Amino acid sequence: MASFRVRTPAEYLKLLWRRRYFILAPFVITGAALCWAVQGLPNIYESTTMIIVVPPRVSSNYVQPVNPVDVNSRLSTIQKQVTSRTELQRIISRFGLYKDMIERNTPVELVIDEMQRHIFVRPQSTPTGTNAFTISFQGADPRTVRDVTAELAARFIDANSDETRREAYTTIDQLEEQIESVKTQLEEIEKNRAGYLVRNPDAIPGQEMSMLGQMNSLSMIRQSQQSSIDTLRTQISTNEQMLAAMRSQDNVEPEPPLATGQTEGQLRARRADFEAQLRQLLIKYTEKAPEVIAVRVQLDAINRELEDLRNRTEQDKAARRAARKVNPQVQSMEIKVATDKKELERKQAEIERTNAQIAELQSRLRSTPLLATEATRIERDYDVLRKRYDDLIAKRDNAKFGAKVINDFSGETFRMQDPANLPEVPVSPKRRLLYPLSLIIGLITGLIAAIAIEARAMMTIRDGKDVTHYTRLPLLVTVPKIVTEQERRMRPLMITAKIFGVLLLIAAAVPLLYEAIKVSRLLNVLTGG
Fold this sequence. Notes:
Number of strands: 4
């Protein structure tokens, strides 16, 4: 089967000429209807006002921003407030906007949407770098457009002041809620901390060093007590030996004991040494230093021993005087040995108590790290919460102060730079562009109609070239078209009838198409009207 025969440009032009009426009629109908519709489009005027964003007039070093918000974000929020349904209904009622839509009982939502489509808020920057934005409104009446734009600008300025105050007091309320919550947590953790320290006093910071100092003092006391016990045991052993010797010589007058003088001399020498140490320590430390306390404890022990020695000496003398019939030396030695043994028992009890205290301190020291860790955690949580509480208090005070001066000195304010202008030239529709576009659309419509009609005919054999191409046979002869005399006489009438029919079609179709375009509001959608 032969492929489709491609025509030459001349043949295509000839086909278009043959279908010229199918091109001309849609072109005239569509173009005229569109041009008529463009001519009937209402003029849309636009009024614009510029509002600049004035930065805070008080340094942020004195008044911190209550709730710093980006200007574009704030502008978006204010725009939603100003262009809300309630606000726009008031503006529509006040200025009598969109009467035709209201008369057609158009739903309020559609009227609001129509007005919102004609409100434009465009952020921009001035040459000085100050943030600014423009507010524009489009409508059919220039004076009404100007008045509506001025009203919108005033509402933007008022809404910014209200929004700034609302942000300030909302922030204050939020901070108050946070402060109450943190305060409750702080009181709870303070209660827990106090209870923990009462139950575990060793967890108090510095308690470990205090216990170490006590242990050192007790160790020195124990050393002194052990030395005194050793001395006392030696003394008892010496006295028992002397007593045994005196009893073996019961007829011999006993020599007075020398151990008492020696012991007293030793104690006095030791007391002198500790007094010297105490004087040296008082130069470096205070009375409450562990080293000073330990030396004083040893001095007290030595003084008690000297006092006990003097008491025993006096007791010995009294016993010798009272027992003149018996051997006073033996009796005195017996009394002395008995007294030393009782003193030894007392000192052993003291050193046992000292060892028990040292063991208790060691046990407490072993548990102190765990207690201190928990106490440190509680203290850290308390410090963090306390700092947060103080920060919230500072923010709240700053917010209250900022809220007081925000209208006059603090916060970004809106100021009208250029008032709404009275437009003189419509911004829409662009008729200089729409008229040529309407003619182009009409021409395209005619071409589409002609091509649609001629497309099927192009698939048939129309002339000798088609015969040669599709049959692949040589053309031998052609028969010319035979026109009768009557057909020749009827041709002018047919042409006239066609022209009259085309004109009648155009006259009827143009108004219908115009009404269809008007009802469909196609041009309004395309032009944004």
